[in-house]
Amino acid sequence: MCESVHSMVASHYLEVFMFNLRSSAQLPEQILFRTLRWASKCQVSSRRSRTTEQGAGLNDIFGLLLFLLSTATLAQTPITSEGLHPLPKEDARQLLQGATIAFTSTKGNQLRWKNELDGTMFATSLGPSGKNNTKNGTWKIDDKGRFCVSIDWPSNLEEWCRSIVKEGGSYYLVRKNGERVSELSVKQ
Predict the structure, then answer these.
(1) Residue 90, Cα to own-chain centre: how many angstroms?
(2) 71-88 as b/e, with b when 16 or more CB fall inside 10 Å?
(3) Is the dihedral angle over the CA atoms 49, 53, 55, 57 positive or is it negative?
(4) Predicted local distance difference test score (pLDDT) of residue 176
(5) CA–CA separation, 109 vs 87, rounded Å?
(6) Last residue of a domain, which of 25, 47, 75?
(7) pTM of the predicted model, to two decimals?
């Protein structure tokens, strides 16, 4: 198998690799691991049977491949321990724009509002003690695809940005460290 790779043109090899990356059901990290394992066997083989010049060609291809793989892996790294990926920016915008949002905060408050198309909202918070608050606020999807909210409640300014992940039919707000904050109800 390594022999056939030595005779391939680098651009053709990378084209085939990128096709496999796009069509594979495996995560990029799994493809990276498999490729590293395969490449290490090829490099050992090339050191034994190839001249330095031919082995260097394989190292160049391997280096470029490793760079492309690590870039793809970093771009798609899951943010939760379950391996869930955040929604892409446009998917998050499409899901949340004009939607009615409801969730329970980490403090136990039941929050509800409608994301208006202009980025505004009128939020309602029902606390665990039964105290009800309403306030205007803003929402947006930032450049990283996170759902960002700002509400100036009478007792505090609430500002946060959270990634959204989908598991099954449910959506979750997730912190940067991958911790799920709460399940997010979204109704159009």
Answers:
(1) 13
(2) ebbeeeeebbeeebebbe
(3) negative
(4) 86
(5) 25
(6) 75
(7) 0.58
Structural domain contains residue 81? no
User: Does residue 15 sit in helix, strand or coil?
Assistant: helix
Non-local CB neighbours of 125 within 8 Å, separated by 6+ positions: 105, 109, 110, 111, 132, 133, 134, 135, 153
CATH number at residue 159: 2.40.128.640
pLDDT tens digits for the chain (188 residues)? 554 444 443 444 444 444 444 444 444 444 444 554 555 555 544 445 444 444 555 555 555 454 444 444 334 444 554 678 899 999 999 999 999 999 998 889 999 999 999 999 999 999 999 999 999 999 999 999 999 999 999 888 999 999 999 998 999 999 988 888 899 999 98
CA distances from 179 to 9, 33, 40, 85 (A): 45, 26, 36, 13
Residue 92, C-beta contacts closer than 8 angstroms, at least 6 positions apart = 86, 141, 145, 146, 147, 164
Instruction: Provide the number of structural domains found in the chain.
Output: 2
One domain for residues 70 and 95: no
Tell me if 19 is assigned to some domain. Answer: yes
Residues 172 and 103 occupy one common structural domain = yes
Kindly give the residue spans of alpha helices, DSSP state H, lying in 50-136. 52-75, 89-96
Q: Considering only CA atoms, which of 56, 66, 58 is closest in space to residue 8?
A: 58
What is the structure's pLDDT at 116? 97
